[in-house]
Design a protein that fits this description.
35% of the residues lie in helices and 22% in strands. With 283 residues, the protein is an alpha+beta fold.
Length: 283
């Protein structure tokens, strides 16, 4: 009997536990709590596993070494943008010099054209640039009118020392009648850097101590006075075929003058010979 009673009590306990469990799971917050707890356990397990590193694996060195291999001082700040330059006078102070020979321009007046003709004693040449001289007649420093690369340095018996600086494809400045040249071919020069000193040339002896300066595009000289204080882009966008034609017209004009001068000289010689012959006949 006692055993039967025990068995019944155990059955009642089991049934009460089942009923309790059912009532527990019937509550609304039970399952969300279980899910959150399971997720927390899984996340903790993952983080612990990821943090574990084998002893034989070398950790990368993320330490910071001050100024490693790049010694850039405050004064060596990197240049963000290169400034745009304008053509400048090839001297430190343009007020100290004067133009003694102008660029030959077919659109200029007769007087201006005459002032742009170079006479070497035998021939006439149209000036393809400007000749500048100091007002006191002394020599002066000739500077690069714009930054660039020295394309050529040569000594000419007629033109004096010549320096050619290239600034962009097809754009050059030419410096003639120099003495004491300070640059060599291949040098990179900055605007305002001294390339030499003003000297003399056999081509334009009347100018005295001077420097002949030219600006050229694709080999064609242009009037420097039209491009001072203007950018390189201005010249690059400018058509210069008219300047080439102006040089040709000027050359033709000088050739005609030479021919005229020669014919007049020949005719005068013929007149003298005729007079001498007549005098001999009379005698």
């Amino acid at each position: 009997m006692a055993e039967v009673m025990k068995m019944r009590e155990e059955e009642k306990k089991r049934s009460s536990r089942k009923i309790g469990m059912k009532n527990f799971f019937k509550k609304k917050r039970v399952f969300p709590a279980i899910y959150i707890g399971a997720a927390a356990i899984l996340l903790t397990t993952f983080l612990v596993w990821q943090a574990r590193t084998p002893d034989n694996v070398e950790q990368p060195d993320f330490s910071y070494e001050e100024n490693a291999e790049r010694q850039i001082a405050d004064e060596d700040a990197l240049e963000v943008g290169k400034p745009v330059e304008d053509f400048s006078w090839p001297v430190a102070n343009e007020d100290d010099i004067e133009v003694v020979t102008y660029f030959y321009d077919t659109t200029a007046s007769d007087e201006e054209q005459e002032a742009a003709i170079i006479y070497d004693g035998n021939n006439f040449y149209p000036s393809t640039g400007i000749a500048i001289a100091a007002k006191d007649g002394e020599t002066f420093d000739v500077q690069a009118a714009m930054s660039g690369k020295v394309k050529a340095v040569k000594e000419d018996t007629v033109l004096g020392n010549v320096v050619v600086i290239e600034h962009a494809e097809g754009i050059e400045t030419v410096y003639q009648s120099l003495q004491n040249v300070n640059v060599t071919e291949g040098d990179e020069v900055k605007q305002g850097e001294v390339v030499g000193k003003a000297g003399r040339s056999l081509l334009n002896e009347e100018a005295g101590i001077h420097a002949h300066f030219e600006i050229r595009k694709d080999g064609v000289p242009v009037n420097p006075l039209n491009y001072f204080k203007k950018s390189l882009t201005t010249l690059q966008n400018q058509e210069v075929t008219e300047g080439e034609e102006a040089d040709e017209d000027a050359s033709e004009e000088t050739e005609e003058q030479d021919e005229t001068g020669t014919s007049e000289e020949d005719s005068s010689n013929e007149d003298e010979e005729n007079r001498d012959a007549n005098e001999n006949d009379q005698e």
